[in-house]
Write a structure and sequence with these properties.
- The protein has three domains: 71 residues, 2-Layer Sandwich (Dna Ligase, domain 1); 121 residues, ATP-grasp fold, B domain (D-amino Acid Aminotransferase, Chain A, domain 1, 2-Layer Sandwich); 148 residues, Succinyl-CoA synthetase domains (Rossmann fold, 3-Layer(aba) Sandwich), CATH 3.40.50.261.
- The protein is 35% helix and 25% strand.
- It is built from twelve helices and 18 strands.
- The protein is elongated and about 75 Å long.
Length: 378
C-alpha cells in the first residue's frame, strides 16, 4: 500500500524529521485560503501515487494566494500517468543549498534491507543512477542491528551527505520498522541555506500483509484501494491477483510459483512480461473472462500466454472457462495456451473443437513461452 506524499510527510513529522509547513486541499478556493495561512508564496503539488509529477506539470510555484488558486485549478483533475489528481498539497517554499536522495528498501534476494543514498538528489536521480552508478551508494542494513547512529554516519559518509543528515537517516529507519514499511524514500532531502535538513518529498510503501495494523491510512484488506495503476485497480475490483509490468506478453497462470516461472521463461525467450496474473485454484469462465479483459485492456500487450497446470482445478474446466470467456471477451490479440496435468488431453480437445482463429495450443511450457514471445515481438 503506497501512501500519498502528504501522508508520508505527516509520518516523517511524527518521527522528528523536519518538513516544511503544508496543507492539503481539494478545491481551488481552499488553496487560496491555505496559501494565505502559509505566508502567500507556496509550492502546489499534485497528490497522486506515482512519480514524475514535476515533469508532468503537477508541481508548480505560486507567488501569492491568488496564483495558488489558479494553479490549484490547473492541477486538480489532471491525469498523471493514469492517475487523476483529486487533491493538492500546498507547502512553504525553502531556500535550497543542496539536494540529496535517501531511501531504505527491502532487498528480498539478499534477505536484508538496503540503504540507497546520493549527494545528487532531485528529479533526475534515475538518470544519475543509470549513467553514473558510482554516485549512488548502496549500503546493506542488518535488520537485527538496524540503523544506529554509527550506521547512519556510515551511510551519510558513503553517499557524500553532510554529517548532519545522519539524524534524519536514523529517524527514517524508525519509520520503516515501526510502520511496517517495505520502502521509505525522500527525494529530495535538502540542506537549506540556513543549514537545516528538511524532507521536501516522501514516498512510503506499507507491507500489504500489515495493512490491518495500518488501517488509519484508509485501506483495509476487504476494501480494495481505488488508487494506483488503473489496470491494477480494475483487477483488484474483480478480485484478481494482478501486477502491471513493462512488457508485451500478457501472462495468466494458476499459482504464484508457476506464474513467476512463466515470467522468467518468457524473458529468456527475448520478450518482456506485461503482467503477473495468478488465477489461483479457480479458473471459472468469469475468472478467465475478467483476467483476459484486464490483460487485453493493456495497450502494450501484443500476445497473451495462458499457462495452466491442472491439479485441483482440472484442465478441462480451465478450457471450458476459456471457451466461455471467448464468448464475452472480444479477442483481438493472439492467445497461446499450454495445458498440462489433470485432464489435459480433454482440455486440449475442448479448445480444438472451439477452433478460435487467434487461439493456438502448445504442449510444453518452453514452447508456449517461445511462441508467445515470437508473436509479441514479430
Amino acid at each position: 500500500m503506497d501512501l500519498y506524499e502528504h501522508q508520508a510527510r505527516e509520518l516523517f513529522k511524527g518521527y522528528g524529521i523536519a518538513v516544511p509547513d503544508a496543507a492539503v486541499v481539494d478545491h481551488p478556493r481552499e488553496a487560496r485560503h491555505a496559501a494565505e495561512l502559509l505566508g502567500g508564496r507556496v509550492v502546489v503539488k499534485a497528490q497522486v501515487k506515482t512519480g514524475g509529477r514535476g515533469k508532468a506539470g503537477g508541481v508548480k510555484l505560486a507567488a501569492d494566494p491568488a496564483a495558488a488558486e489558479i494553479t490549484a485549478r490547473q492541477i486538480l483533475g489532471m491525469d498523471i500517468k493514469g492517475h487523476t489528481v483529486h487533491r493538492v498539497m500546498l507547502a512553504q517554499p525553502v531556500d535550497i543549498q543542496d539536494e540529496f536522495y535517501v531511501s531504505y528498501v527491502l532487498d528480498r534476494a539478499a534477505g536484508t534491507f538496503l540503504a540507497i543514498a546520493s549527494a545528487e538528489g532531485g528529479m533526475d536521480i534515475e538518470e544519475v543512477a543509470a549513467t553514473r552508478p558510482e554516485a549512488v551508494a548502496r549500503i546493506p542494513v542488518d535488520p537485527a542491528e538496524g540503523v544506529t547512529e554509527t550506521k547512519a554516519a556510515e551511510i551519510a559518509a558513503a553517499a557524500g551527505l553532510p554529517p548532519e543528515a545522519a539524524d534524519a537517516l536514523r529517524r527514517l529507519w524508525q519509520v520503516l520498522v515501526r510502520e511496517d514499511a517495505l520502502l521509505v524514500e525522500v527525494n529530495p532531502l535538502v540542506r537549506t541555506v540556513q543549514g537545516t535538513i528538511l524532507a521536501l518529498d516522501g514516498k512510503v510503501t506499507i507491507d500489504d500483509n500489515a495493512v490491518f495494523r495500518q488501517a488509519r491510512w484508509g485501506e483495509t484488506p476487504d476494501a480494495p484501494s481505488t488508487e494506483g495503476d488503473p489496470l491494477e485497480v480494475a483487477a483488484r475490483a474483480r478480485g484478481l491477483n494482478y501486477v502491471k509490468l513493462d512488457g508485451e506478453v500478457g501472462i495468466i497462470g494458476n499459482g504464484a510459483g508457476l506464474v513467476m516461472s512463466t515470467l522468467d521463461v518468457v524473458a529468456g525467450r527475448g520478450a518482456r512480461p506485461a503482467n503477473f496474473l495468478d488465477i489461483g485454484g479457480g479458473a471459472s469462465a468469469q475468472v478467465m473472462a475478467d483476467g483476459l479483459d484486464v490483460i487485453l485492456s493493456d495497450p502494450d500487450v501484443r500476445a497473451v500466454l495462458v499457462n495452466v497446470f491442472g491439479g485441483i482445478t482440472a484442465c478441462d474446466a480451465v478450457a471450458e472457462g476459456i471457451v466461455q470467456a471467448l464468448a464475452s471477451v472480444h479477442l483481438t490479440k493472439p492467445l497461446v495456451v499450454r495445458l498440462d496435468g489433470n485432464n489435459a488431453a480433454r482440455g486440449r480437445a475442448i479448445l480444438d473443437a472451439r477452433a478460435h482463429p487467434l487461439v493456438e495450443q502448445v504442449t510444453t511450457m518452453d514452447g508456449a513461452a517461445a511462441r508467445a514471445a515470437q508473436l509479441a515481438t514479430r
